[in-house]
Write a structure and sequence with these properties.
Blueprint lengths: L6 H4 L2 H8 L3 E5 L4 E3 L7 E7 L2 E5 L7 E6 L4 E2 L13 E4 L3 E7 H10 L1 H30 L9
Antiparallel strand pairs: 1-8, 2-7, 3-6, 3-8, 4-5, 4-7
Helix pairs in contact: 3-4
């Protein structure tokens, strides 16, 4: 399955500047907790370097890592869909450099500029679809019936 294109590649050239103008470069040390499941999703990141672990709360146990994100990947999509609450938690695995975006500003840009809005929504939807596919594949690897392929 081809990887989702980068956010800026998904935008028409004349719209990229509007988004890059509100981005902030951030440097995050190892073990930085970026967000918690169920808390307000008010920003997102595009990872430049490093890796971030997405995790899910497991009652009575440590949070379970469900995915690791790296270079050029979107970190966070809950900011785009009401009620704007994180579905997972996230923590840096090592030092991370990223572009950080204020979710309220980006949502306002998307409302103000339908071409930009369609491109951002499509990019996020493709990212979510790719991750869902990856999750289903991992679940089949873990829990699927062994040797269930048809044929001799």
């Amino acid at each position: 399955m081809p990887k989702v294109q980068q956010l800026f590649d998904a935008l028409p050239p004349d719209r990229r500047r509007r988004l890059t103008d509100i981005a902030h470069e951030v440097s995050l040390p190892r073990a930085t907790r970026l967000f918690e499941e169920g808390h307000r999703a008010d920003r997102f990141w595009i990872i430049s370097t490093g890796r971030v672990a997405l995790d899910q709360h497991v009652p009575g146990r440590r949070a379970a890592v469900v995915e690791i994100l790296g270079r050029d990947e979107l970190l966070g999509w809950s900011w785009l869909f009401p009620p704007y609450l994180w579905h997972l938690g996230a923590e840096t695995v090592g030092p991370v450099e990223a572009l950080q975006f204020d979710a309220t500003l980006v949502r306002a840009l998307c409302e103000d500029d339908p071409v930009l809005g369609r491109a951002v929504y499509r990019y996020v939807a493709e990212t979510v679809a790719e991750r869902l596919h990856g999750t289903r594949t991992r679940l089949l690897d873990l829990y699927g019936p062994q040797g269930s392929a048809a044929g001799p």
